[in-house]
Structures are given as C-alpha cells and as structure tokens.
Amino acid sequence: MDSSTVRIILLIIHFLFLIYAFTVVVSYIFLAVISAIETSEYLKRNSFVNYSEILSSTVSPSISIIAPAYNESLNIIENVRSLLSSHYVNYDVIIVNDGSKDDSLEKLIEAYDLIEINYLINNQVKTKPLRRGVFKSTNPAFEKLIVVDKQNGGKADALNCGLNISKSDYVACIDVDCLLLEDALQKMIKPFLEVTDIKVIASGGVIRIANSCIIKEGKLMDVNLPSKFIEIAQILEYLRSFLLGRMAWSRLNGLLVISGAFGVFDKKIALEVGGYNTNTVGEDMEIIVRMRRYMEEKEEKYKVAYIPDPLCWTEAPDNYKILISQRNRWTRGTIEVLKLHRKIGFNPKYKLLGMLSYPYWFFYERLAPIIEVIGILYFLILIALQNVKWDYAFAFFLMAYLFSVTFTIIAIFSEELSFHQYKKKGTGFRLILVTLLEPFLLHPFILYAAIRGNIDYYFNKKLKWGEMTRKGLSKTETNK
Amino acid sequence: MIDLQYYTEYFWELPILIKVVWLISGVLFVVILALIAYLKFLRSHLRENEKTLKKYQKEYEENLINYLYAGDNENEISEAQRVLINKMKICVADKFKRKILISVMSKLINDISGEMAHSIQKFYFETGLVNYALYKLKGRKWDVIASGIKELTQFEVKEAHNEIIKYVKHPNLEVRNEAQLYLVSLFQFKGLVFLDKLKTSLSEWAQIQLLEILQKFDNQEIPNIRPWLQSKNNSVVQFSLKLVKIYNQFDVRDILLELLSHENKEIRVDTIQVLNYFQDTECKHFLKTKFNTSSEEEQIEFFRLLEITADTDDEVFILENVAHTNFKIKLAALKILKAINLEIFNEVKLETTDLQVVEIVKFIEAN
After folding, report:
1. Average pLDDT along chain B
2. pLDDT value at position B222?
3. Is B134 part of any domain?
4. Region B300-324 average pLDDT
5. Residue B40: its chain A contacts at CB < 8 A?
6. Cβ–Cβ of A53/B201 closer than 8 Å?
7. What confidence tens digit (pLDDT) does each residue in B89-120 have?
8. What SS3 state is found at B311?
9. How near does any CA of chain B get to the CA of A472, in Å?
10. More confident residue, B285 or A474
C-alpha cells in the first residue's frame, strides 16, 4: 500500500467518525424536539383527569406490585410500608424474599403479623423452589401483603415467582427499595385503560433520585438536591435519559427498555412470552424486547407506554465504585439483549422495532463507548506521531463539549417547565455547575464502566449482578 | 486590536469545515449563556408564581368562606355577599387570578354539598366566571374546550347542554370524555343517551369514570338498556354489561344469552361473567356444547360459573376437563368434582399420574 492509499483510508475513517458524531447530534436534537411535544401533550391531556374515580371503582383492574428482596433487612419494613400506602383500591403487594441470608423474613413476620398459608401456585414460569413458603398477615390492615420466601435465583427468578403468585391482570415490577408515590398505580394503569384500538403491553415510569430527599414513614416529604457531585451528575443523567430520551421513544412507539426499578406489565402477555429471562443481567430490557417481538410476530397493534410523572424515587450510587459496577452491569445487559434478539435488527418484518429502535440502540448505545475509545486511541496515536492540528482539534472538542452542555441544560428546562421538583433557591446554580463539570468528572467513569462491561461480557462470563450497598431511603432524612 | 485582526485573518484562512465548527461553537456558547440567564429568570419566576399562587389561594379561600357564611336566605344574595361578589369580579377579569379562583372553587365544591354547593354555583354565575367557561367552548384548541366543559361540569351548568352535546362526537378523545362526563354528571342516567348513536369506542377508563359518577346518585333507576346491549358499538355493549351487573338488570337475560354468540370474544367473556354473577344455570347447556370451540378465556369464565352452579348433571363434563391443559380450569374442575361427588374426586386422586393434579388435590383437601 502506498502512502496515498493510506491517506485515503485515513480520510475515510475521519469522515466515518464525523458522520457518526453528526448523526448522534442530529438524533439527540430530533429526540429532544419529539420529547418536548410529547411531554407538553401529556401534561395537557392529564390536566383534565380525575383520578379519584378509579380509586374507589369496583371495576378497576387488579394490580400486583411485585418486589424482589435480597438481603434488604435494613430497610425492608419501611419499604414495604411505602408499597402498602398506595391510594389505588384493587391491588396487592407481593414481596419475594429471594433466599436472603439476613433476617429480612423474620423482620417481616414480626412487623406485619405474618403466618404461613397454603397457597397454590400456578407455575407458569419455572423458578427456584420455595424455601419457607407463602405468608399472609393476620392483621386486616395488611391484608394486601403477600410474602414469598424462596431459594435464591436472582432478580429475574424472583420476579417470575411473583408473576406465578399474582392473581391480578397487571403486575407492577419494582425494586423493593424504591419509593412509590401514593398515586403511582392509577397513573401507570391509565395508559392500559384509555386505549381502544391498540393494546398497551407495558408502561414505564420515570425514576427519580431520592438521595438527600426527606422521607418519613415511606412517604416523600421534601425533595432536595444531594450534596455530592456524583449524585447531582446522576440526576442530570436521569433527566436527560428519562425526560428527553425515553419520552421521545415512547411517542415513536419505539421504547426498548422500561426501568427495572418500576414498570407495569400486562401479566397475560408477560407470561405468554415466558416471563423474565434469568440468563441475563439486563432482564428489564430483555422482557420488553421479547414482548415487543412477540406482538410483532403476532401482527397485533401494540404500544409500550411511558409516564413522565415523578412517581418512583430510588437511591443512586454515591460513590464511583458502586456506580461503575452498576453501569458495567447495564452495559453487559444491553450487549446480551441485543445479541439475544439480533434477529430483529435491520429486519423489516419487525417494522419500527427492527428498522429504528434496534439499530439506534446498537449504534448509539451498544457501540458508542467502543467508538469513543477507538477515537481516543486514534487521537493518542496522532499525538504520538505529532500529526495533530491542535487548533482544529480544540475546535471540535469545544463544539462537542458545548453541545453536551446545551443538551443537559435543555433537559433541566424540560424538568423546570414540567414537574419543577427542585424548587429550592441555589439549586439551579448547582445544577448548572455540575452540568459544566460533568463531561470531565463523570463521563470518563461512565465510559470506563462501559468498557469494563464489554471486557467482562467477553472475558468474565461468570460475573453477574455485583453488590449495591444501600444506605436506605429512610436514612436520607437524616442527611440534611 | 492587533489580536482581533490576527484572529479574523486566522478564521478566514481556515478550511470551511473548521469554520462551521467554530461558528456552531460560537452559537452554542451564546445559546448556553442565554439559557443559563433564562433558567435563572424561569426558576425565580416559578418560585414567585408559587408564592403569589399561595397568597391568592389563601385570600380567595377566605373570601369564599366569608361569602358562604354571609348568606341569610337560600335563594337570595345578601348585601354582604354582593360586596364580596363585586370584589371578586375584579379578580375574575385577570386570567391568572381567574385560574386560581376556579381551582379554589373546584376544591371547595368537592368538599361541600347541598345549600352551600348551590351558593357556590350562584357565585360562579354572579361573578361571570360562567361566561369565560362558555367562551372556552368556542376555542380552537382541544384543551381549551375540554377545560371549559370540565368547569361547566363541576359547577353544574345545565344550560350549556345544547352546546356541549355537540362535543360528544369530537375527534379528540379528551374532549369527548369531558362531554360524556358532563352529560352523565348533570343528567344522570338520562345523560347516557349519547350511547344511542356513539360511533367511537368508549375506553375502559371512560367506562370506569361514568360508572363511578352514576353510582354516586340517589336515583338508581336505570333506563332501558336493551338497545345498548344490542349496539353495533362493542364498547357500548361492554359498558352496558357492566350496568347490567351493577344494577342487577336480570330482566335482560334473553339478550345476555344472545350475546354468548357475539362475534367479539371480550363481549362473550364479559357476558359469561355477568351470567355467573346472576348464577344463571340455563346457559350451561349452550356453553357446554360450544365449549371446545370457545376461547380459553371463555372456558375459564364458564368454569367459574360452574363453580357456583354445578350439580351432578355436570359431572361427566367436569370429569372430561379434569385433565384440561389450563391450570385454572383444572383447579376449578377438581374443586367442583369434590363438591358434587367426593367419591369420584377420590378416584381421580388415586388414579392420576399428573403431578399438577396431585398438587391441586392436596391444596383442595387442605382448604
């Protein structure tokens, strides 16, 4: 190969990078615009809704809240109390104690007057066997509570056990440590009930970060912006992802993921597709892709709905070690799901799912960290070869940085103009400050976690969930 | 000055792509500065708005309470009330204040009833708020129309009937829902007349809302629902089936039996549920004959019905389905068998090799 051929190849590579970056930017702008339209319409639509009628209705559909718990002894009592405080009338709470090694079950038995009952389980999805059995409360105040004690099988297995136990039409799958607002169920069930010409198979909710918020007896009393940079930076990430990204995908009916922390499913369809996949760490994304695939193959009109209201609050990692472990798992989950359902990709048979959602996730979620690292390595080589035009490079870096800041500020605007949760004085300044620093102080860790995720996926197959050390939401009130 | 000239010359000598990059960066920089400034303004404005809102809410609440207690005659407005009405009329002219006043009144009217609610309605008319709501009906935006209808529903403005009935067929779902809720909230069962000609589907959400409103009324005499049960609009049929169940309209049994052959599966399932509620035994024979061609949902519902109505005549049919592939049907069949013929139940228990049946039998015997 002569030098001119090499030059041409390099030029092509440069332009491929440029095209990739350009399409990322264009897609972000496109999603932001669609999201703004959808949020505005959602807010308009729901300003007329009277949720009180469905609360007392005897014909409202039944919902089971399924919450898997593993070694959650520290906060389990408070968390269950929060789940039991929903204003919806026709619901029950199924806590699946997934082989906890701590005293979670004993605590629950004592706090909620539980006794073992004879419960016939329709094992539609295979799960690990029960350990001590099924428990219900003798106290009428807790009649909605069912506790299942089973052998450890992981989150997906515990959720499947909940699906088998549930006798309701819909299931709300939630992380036990999440805090649900009292009106969460009626808001989440609405999309299923308001459609007439299409079937809603699942609805996802926004996840908000509860670190530093004041929570008393399982209820959110006051919203505060956390003090640590890493926590605020995650708030910005969540705003971008939920209020700009997923909201837009919902409008396009191309949503591929509903957060495992809180989502409501049509139980019949969830069971028809075989429940959660226990062989992936991305079970929340996998079940949605499988349900969508199933509906596409059945050629039935369907939708995955999305609710932007801040209904579910959770504790986010407050140190880089746990954050990296979490993002590593998310990356492995994405790789696993996309690989498992590669048949969908670029397949016109799957319409929007195959031709838009899957390719987007593949190029801009799955490949993004890899392309970014290749870019960095290539840049380092150019530096070593003293072949960098620094003024040109600086111009590109500056543009990328300014675009990222602009996009985050738009996400903040979206929040301010819709739900305005962070009301306190000085919060805006701190959000802007973190917005300016985030690309330098958080993004490198996120990139590192994604690359580690890729490496672990290919070279460390045994790695599963990893530990999430929780401080507990009930403790957050003391933080202030 | 020299620097500026240097940079200008540098810029014009750049390749076009880099020039574009610098221009975009410049634009983004200005946009960011503008957004930050606007964010500061917006947050302050929202905070101020909230303070003002609370202040006016408190003030209007007090005024409304004073108004309610200043009345001395049910039908006439007292002098003190007139003063308050005139005072509030000034606020009504301002859009922001009007919105707050309406929200305060809406909350209040939900908490009170009888004479006081009547008094609030009078206030609504006297302050001219009703005219703003009626004006909204002429709006071009669907959300303006829907909010107008909602307001007129809350303050029970029956005079708007002729205007609102036009919106029952509005292309926007929200407007349609609000119009339907208006009719039922204000005219009770008579308001359901819109079902006669309804072409669009009535969502499950709308059905729940309508049923809840209807159940609040003292007058529970429902009109003739036969035509709705025979409607070509499937959602109207489903809604009517709910009415049949809630209001015990067993006299429409003949239509219910016809609906068992309806082309829509959901309607057939709902019909079996209603017949189950009435513990109807005469439908059993028909359902048995078409059992094998029915959907699984219908089969499950039929077995639920049999759990209540089965007798020894059903034994053969029940036995046939003890080995059904559906868990719910299997469970129901075994439960029924135990109830109608313990001997045969025990025989099945001894002979079965199906592990699921063994498990179900154990469960049934333990309960």
Report:
1. 93
2. 85
3. no
4. 95
5. 428
6. no
7. 998 999 999 999 999 999 998 888 888 888 99
8. coil
9. 30
10. B285
A450-454, B253-257, B330-334, B351-355: which has the minimum mean pLDDT? B351-355
Are A54 and B147 in contact (CB < 8 Å)?
no
pLDDT of B168 reads 92
Q: Can you tell me the distance from the alpha carbon of A415 to that of A419, in angstroms, rounded to the nearest whole number? A: 6
Asked whether the beta carbons of residue A409 and residue B32 sit closer than 8 angstroms, the reply is yes
Nearest Cβ partner of A196 from B42, B201, B331? B201
A199 sits in which H/E element: strand A199-209
Tokens of B317: 């049919």
Q: For B155-166, write each residue's pLDDT tens digit.
A: 999 999 999 999
Residue of chain A minimizing CA distance to B141: A44
Most A CBs within 10 A among B43, B184, B207, B297, hence the mutation to make, goes to B43
Tens digit of each residue's pLDDT (9 = 90 or more) over B45-88: 999 999 999 999 999 999 999 998 887 766 778 888 899 999 99
Query: Tokens 């649900």 sit at which residue?
Result: A180
Residue pairs spanning A and B at CB distance below 8 A: 106
DSSP-derived secondary structure for A6-58 = HHHHHHHHHHHHHHHHHHHHHHHHHHHHHHHHHHHHHHHHHTS--THHHHH-T
Residue B188 falls within a domain, yes or no? no
B35–A410 CB contact, under 8 Å: yes
pLDDT over 70 (residue B2): no
Long-range contacts of A25-32 (CB under 8 A, 24+ apart): A25/A403, A27/A360, A27/A364, A28/A244, A28/A407, A30/A248, A31/A244, A31/A245, A31/A248, A31/A249, A32/A244, A32/A248, A32/A407, A32/A410
Instruction: Give the type of residue at A191.
Output: P
Q: Find the angle CA(B11)-CA(B17)-CA(B22) to the nearest 5 degrees.
A: 50
Tell me the nearest-neighbour CA distance from B257 into chain A, angstroms.
Answer: 22
B114: containing domain: 1-71+79-127
What residues in chain A have per-residue pLDDT under 50? 475-480
- Number of domains observed in the structure of chain B: 1
CA nearest neighbour of A189 among B203, B210, B288, B212: B203
Answer yes or no: do A53 and B213 touch at CB < 8 A.
yes
Contact A406 B35 (CB under 8 A): yes
Task: Please check whether residue B87 lies inside any domain of the structure.
Answer: yes
Q: Is the residue at B84 inside a domain? A: yes
**Chain B residues whose beta carbon lies within 8 Å of the beta carbon of residue A427:** 43
Work out the average pLDDT over B290-309: 96
Residue B8 has pLDDT above 50, yes or no: yes
Q: What is the pTM of this model?
A: 0.92
Query: In chain B, what residues touch A63 (CB-CB under 8 Å)?
Result: none
Task: Determine which of B144, B208, B244, B296 to mutate to test the interface with A (most A C-beta atoms within 10 Å).
Answer: B208
Contact B47 A423 (CB under 8 A): yes
Chain B residues in contact with A59 (beta carbon < 8 A): 207-208, 211, 242
pLDDT for the residue A471? 59
Amino acid, res. B294:
S
Q: How far is CA B213 from CA A94, B37, B98, B133, B219, in A?
A: 32, 48, 27, 22, 12
CA–CA min distance B25, chain A (Å): 5
Three-state DSSP string of B80-94:
HHHHHHHHHHHHHCC
Q: What is the pLDDT of residue A467?
A: 53
Nearest to A300 by CA among A228, A200, A162, A177: A200
Residue B367: predicted pLDDT? 82
